[in-house]
Design goal:
Strand content of chain A: over 45%
Largest sheet of chain A: 7 strands, mixed
Order of helices and strands of chain A: EEEEEEEEEEE
Low-confidence stretches of chain B: none
Number of strands of chain B: 11
Shape of chain A: globular
Largest interface: A-B, 21 and 25 residues
Mean pLDDT of chain A: 93
Structural class of chain B: mainly beta
Number of helices of chain A: 0
Radius of gyration of chain A: 13 Å
Order of helices and strands of chain B: EEEEEEEEEEE
Oligomer: heterodimer
Strand content of chain B: over 45%
């Protein structure tokens, strides 16, 4: 099966600019996650979708971050305006049925550098 | 305080040697624990899952153990290879809670 696809692979922007990341999950996976991973840290959940509904966005900085999953398949994560501390790898993951019982399948991430 | 603590933070081992990584957690009520391997520049990949009733599980040269009483897990790598160089992340799931608890990872470097 095809894995989780993410683009772009790398992005460099200046602070206060905007940026968007795209994710295509594994076909049939209803649950989609966006994680932020700062160098040397474990992934931190930003938002979790079940189909096209939001399950958990409590750690999403909503003043600057937004995400959507139209039609319950692809998803985009946007940052506007970006800050220096947003420099990180943004990982998208999807999982099958059975919360916690199914592994997360991660994409290779988008490495964002904010200068 | 992080609910999942991993040690050592990093280690360097010679090719062919064994090593053991530790994961302590406070997540409750416990559902399962997964070990993920994250190669540089890649997303994490699941190695193994441990449930409450399981004490040990192997996946090739990787062996995971779980002590649910002390809330500890370990990942043992046997006869390390250069391709084992990666970060190993412990992830714990609780019943009735959608959010997974991630450790910061054990960074392993295997040298020839």
């Amino acid at each position: 099966e095809a894995g989780v696809a993410q683009s772009p692979r790398y992005k460099i922007i200046e602070k206060r600019q905007s940026v968007a990341f795209w994710c295509n999950p594994i076909s049939g996976h209803a649950t989609l996650y966006w994680y932020q991973q700062i160098l040397g840290q474990g992934p931190k959940l930003l938002i979790q979708f079940q189909n096209n509904g939001v399950v958990d966005d409590s750690q999403l900085p909503k003043d600057r971050f937004s995400a959507e999953r139209l039609k319950g398949v692809d998803s985009t994560l946007k940052i506007q305006p970006a800050k220096l501390e947003d420099s990180a790898v943004y990982l998208c993951a999807s999982s099958g049925p059975g919360q916690g019982a199914s592994p997360l399948h991660f994409g290779n991430g988008t490495r964002l550098t904010v200068t | 305080k992080n609910q999942v603590e991993q040690s050592p933070q990093s280690l360097i081992i010679l090719e062919g040697k064994n090593c053991t990584l530790q994961c302590n957690y406070t997540v409750s009520p416990f559902s399962n624990l997964r070990w993920y391997k994250q190669d540089t520049g890649r997303g994490p990949v699941s190695l193994t899952i441990m449930t409450f009733s399981e004490n040990t599980k192997s996946n090739g040269r990787y062996t995971a153990t779980l002590d649910a009483d002390t809330k500890q897990s370990s990942l043992h790598i046997t006869a390390s290879q250069l391709s084992d160089s990666a970060s190993y992340i412990c992830v714990v799931s609780a019943y009735g809670n959608n959010r997974l608890a991630f450790g910061k990872g054990n960074q392993v470097v295997v040298i020839p």
